[in-house]
């Protein structure tokens, strides 16, 4: 469904991606792992269309995304969950959910959102500013589902969260995946990555150097942690 081939990217004169190839099939979750500066965020931003100095092919369900601005990519089903979560602090949970327009091909009703996210239903009248980090992350994920995304792109969703919340976000993403939504996430937490995802692209210096499944992640955990500098 999402296919990236030969993705190259630059900041000014400096090339930072050198031909990234990756694929996310329907209902599949994959991660991009790699040490700081490997090019994970640039890869996500290039797919979304927020980084434009790129070459290569980016296709979603056979559509060529390369010439399209971000809002037209969203219409085809890309759902970006930014690292800062982008929650409106003064609006309630429900207002945060219904404010953005439905643009994608598979919008979720509020009812469906609340059945998967009972915590958000309980907190629906609370302002964004009163939510915990984990609740904000849930709201950011719920919002892109409401907008109609068929694939979620997340940049380090567990960053700064306590272990229990990391566990909850993992369970939630697994459930999202079970609803047929694809997931591409940047993640440094290997345990979390293998809880949520089926495959893992190891990025180093702007290139995919290995594609690992969960059994390989378990076998090579120590080596990988060393590589990631954790
Ligand atoms: N706005 C920018 N201007 C110039 N260079 C940048 C910019 N953003 C990122 N880079 C460089 O591009 C390379 C890839 O950065 P990127 O943020 O994609 O890596 P990353 O794997 O997501 O790392 P991190 O986990 O630190 O965000 C790095 O060398 C980084 O210094």
From TrEMBL:
GO terms for molecular function: ATP binding; ATP hydrolysis activity; branched-chain amino acid transmembrane transporter activity. It comes from the Bacteria. Keywords: Amino-acid transport, ATP-binding, Nucleotide-binding, Transport. PROSITE patterns: ABC_TRANSPORTER_1, ABC_TRANSPORTER_2. Pfam families: ABC_tran. Transmembrane segments: none annotated. SMART domains: AAA (SM00382). One of its GO terms (biological process) is L-amino acid transport. Residues 2-230 form the ABC transporter domain. Belongs to the ABC transporter superfamily. This is ABC transporter related protein.
């Amino acid at each position: 469904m999402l296919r990236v081939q030969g993705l190259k990217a630059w900041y000014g004169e400096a090339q930072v991606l050198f031909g990234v190839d990756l694929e996310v099939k329907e209902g599949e979750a994959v991660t991009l792992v790699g040490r700081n500066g490997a090019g994970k965020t640039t890869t996500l931003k290039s797919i979304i269309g927020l980084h434009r100095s790129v070459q290569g092919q980016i296709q979603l369900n056979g559509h060529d995304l390369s010439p399209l601005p971000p809002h037209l990519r969203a219409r085809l089903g890309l759902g970006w969950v930014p690292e800062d979560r982008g929650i409106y602090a003064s609006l309630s949970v429900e207002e945060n959910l219904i404010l953005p327009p439905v643009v994608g091909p598979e919008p979720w009703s509020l009812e469906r959102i609340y059945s998967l996210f009972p915590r958000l239903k309980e907190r629906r009248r609370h302002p964004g500013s009163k939510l915990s980090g984990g609740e904000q992350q849930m709201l950011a994920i719920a919002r892109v589902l409401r907008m109609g995304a068929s694939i979620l792109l997340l940049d380090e969703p567990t960053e700064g969260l306590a272990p229990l919340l990391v566990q909850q976000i993992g369970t939630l993403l697994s459930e999202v995946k079970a609803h047929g939504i694809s997931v591409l996430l940047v993640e440094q937490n290997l345990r979390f990555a293998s809880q949520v995802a089926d495959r893992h692209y190891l990025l180093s210096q702007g290139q995919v150097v290995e594609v690992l499944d969960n059994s390989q992640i378990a076998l090579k955990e120590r080596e990988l942690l060393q590589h990631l500098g954790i």
